Amino acid sequence: MKTVVLGGGIAGVTAAYYLAREGREVTVIDRQPGVALETSFANAGLVAPGHSYTWASPRAPKILLKSLFVEGQALRLKLNADPHMWAWCFQFLRNCTAERSRENTTRKVRLCRYAQSQLQQLTAAEHLQYDRLSRGLLYLYRDEASFARGTQNMSILADNGLPLKTLDAAQVAAREPALAHACDKIAGAIYCPTDESGDAHLFTRALKAVCERLGVRFEFDTSISAIEASGDRIVGVRTPVGLVPGDEFVLALGSWSPILARRLGYRLPVYPVKGYSATFPVGPEHRPPDLGGVDENNLVAWARFGQRLRFTATAEFAGYDTRHTPADFRQMLQAARELFPDGADYSRASYWAGLRPMTPEGTPLIGRTRHRNLYLNTGHGHMGWTMSCGTAKLLADIMAGRQPELDMTGMTLK
């Protein structure tokens, strides 16, 4: 059985791994010269079931509207003429009710918990190294009002099995000494001891080596211009070197998945949401944090990868534009210096921007399509690193004709 995976990011490579373990002959095609060089390259690095809240919440419309007039918002909407963006935004707004927000968050946290267990099993089985830290994550709040909201909202995650703890400022400092000087800027935090962090790019590169030992072939520097069908079957994908045939095809191209699928008559509800990251070197003179986490009021995440410290921020609805300017990182750097003034060498930044493939609900699209041999593994949004091993395992079960180990409601093509 020849299986062709479209996309060499973390979703594509994890899919290739689980499918190769089934005995399939797998080929991965990607336009980049290596794996995980786009969305998976410099993301937040948090494996965070404790941050599984859907973005479509009752508060989101007001925040997006405010972003049209006030700079520095964590959620930003940039108006453009793309009809696909407007269609996506309409669906997003439909999910911003309290009922749908709770339903979508419940599905996300269940998927994230399952996916984390798959990641842990894979990491142990294949002895992967990717600057992993398994000491929990902190979700900080700057004022009492936001801390009270966060504490109230955490019940939906706790009801689904997450062990969450509330900490006051002194307890935060005891848990993470690098934050001791910032106690006057912190009202409290929610601590999830089972959350983790690690470099998704390093993980994907390490898993690629395992995939190659399993016989997976990688075709890099190969763009895909079309998926060609005959009746209800896909016959191949069109590349500069010709048609690549196969028995089964997996669409795992992140934000670019709906563009190729559109030509087959699909309207995948996936749209790019831009995020920014800055990574700094850590030397012996610095005091970096040992725990990753999120500054909830500014939606700035941080994670340490060995001798590197990364901050990520912003959810910008701006189409497929990955350009960035120094101004895009100003709020992020201000929060970084407030929380960890001696955390890293802030004069030596590596800046990056990438596109999260978001669905309006925040849950990915996995499994079958109208074409009998075309499958989806896309739309992971801001939780792609957390979800990747779980969605790949679910996909492999579906393709093998097995009952998935998780309820797939809300995660399949309607």
Automatic annotation (TrEMBL):
Keywords: Oxidoreductase. This is D-amino acid dehydrogenase 1. PANTHER family: D-AMINO ACID DEHYDROGENASE, SARCOSINE DEHYDROGENASE-RELATED. InterPro entries: FAD-dep_OxRdtase, FAD/NAD-bd_sf. It comes from the Bacteria. Residues 3-397 form the FAD dependent oxidoreductase domain. GO terms for cellular component: cytoplasm; plasma membrane. Pfam families: DAO. GO terms for molecular function: D-amino-acid dehydrogenase activity. The lineage of its organism: Bacteria, Pseudomonadati, Pseudomonadota, Betaproteobacteria, Burkholderiales. Its EC number is 1.4.99.-. Belongs to the DadA oxidoreductase family. GO terms for biological process: D-alanine catabolic process. The keyword Metal-binding does not apply.
